[in-house]
Amino acid sequence: MTTPTIELKPSANPLSDAERQALLANPGFGRHFTDHMVTVKWTEGRGWHDGQLVPYAPLSLDPATMVLHYAQEIFEGLKAYRRPDGSVATFRPEKNAQRFQASSRRLGMPELPVETFLEACDALVRQDQDWVPAHGGEESLYLRPFMIATEVGLGVKPANEYLFIVIASPAGAYFPGGVKPVSIWVSEDRVRAVPGGMGDAKTGGNYAASLLAQAEAAAKGCDQVCYLDAVEHQWVEELGGMNLYFVYGAASNSKPVIVTPSLTGSILEGVTRDSLLTVARDLGYEAEEGRVSVEQWQRDSENGTLTEVFACGTAAVITPVGTVKRAGAQWQQSGGEPGEVTQRLRGALLDIQRGTAEDKHGWMHRLA
Q: Dihedral of the CA atoms 90, 91, 94, 96 (nearest 10)?
């Protein structure tokens, strides 16, 4: 399998320094995009070819393009950080590349070589490195690699043409006013995914399926929706876009045990989730995968043995959980404030990502 070399065709009219700095002053999330994108094509019988870095621009798609009808689409999300010395590094991009391959297999799409995934991300970050926010805060450059089926025609089958693209967007601090706990609605009648389904693939269909339940959570006054398993409707799985962790025992009076729901084939294997298992052990905590039922969650929160709950993902890193609601019940974690273990884990992971702590596991991929 050949690995394309990315041909550089940079824009003749990138944004000026002043225009770019104005956007970086308050980037938000996913609102502004850098000057360039990377594209790589796949064609049956030819494989991967025509890797290019080109100016960011709209796509032109025929109305019968297969992705619009049969949803062969996958994506990833990762971040590039400015280091104290001014250099730039991405966080564990090879893990995203491997998960991208796993998602491809599940949706019957061609597997992009890990080397090509990394080369494409590296090329875009190097070209648009001035878009990476300054070191010192939680700001970063968010990368969105994705792939769509581009064959034109109707017929339910894997397509014979695909387009891989990487775009980038500067991301502000997720909690600009300080870390705030989110409220959770536990959905007991809607499921995110089923065993044997696509729950462990990062595909847009899973997120589309979460929108109705998320709207229902909002109607209940909650920020996020939590899903239970599809078989027994009692085991906690994940939020609409983040994994969950449960902390048993306060850091000040006992050795906490940190538990995240086991991967069952219907839970997305989050890169942040995986990293936190390691970081927690590095900090001396006992960290494990297991099962937590919604009844156990409520009971242990009320009797005080479950002291903290937090969600994790690329965008927010770690988000503490405050109020939890389900049909006929409501309770609070950590008195509605970020817990001690949650804060410590969040700080430890951010320090690695921003280059202010030792990268003992070799997670940072330095670029420029």
A: -110
Provide the phi-psi class of 323: left if phi over 0, else alpha when psi is between -120 and 50, else beta: beta
Phi, psi of 357 (to 5 degrees): -135, 160
Tokens found for residue 255: 């050795």
Joined tokens for residue 153: 């025609």
Buried b (16+ CB within 10 A) or exposed e, 297-331: bbebbeeeebbbbbbbbbbbbbbbbbbbbbeeeee
Residue 135 near residue 355, CB atoms below 8 Å: yes
Q: What Cα–Cα distance (Å) separates residue 70 from each residue in 12, 95, 102, 233, 245?
A: 37, 27, 19, 29, 34
Nearest to 314 by CA among 96, 99, 137: 96
**Range 29-56 average pLDDT:** 97
Residue 29 — pLDDT band, cuts 50, 70, 90?
Answer: very high
> Is the model's pLDDT at 1 over the cut of 80?
no
Closest CA to 199 of 240, 163, 148, 164: 240
Residues with Cβ < 8 Å from 345, sequence gap 6 or more?
276, 279, 280, 283, 310, 318
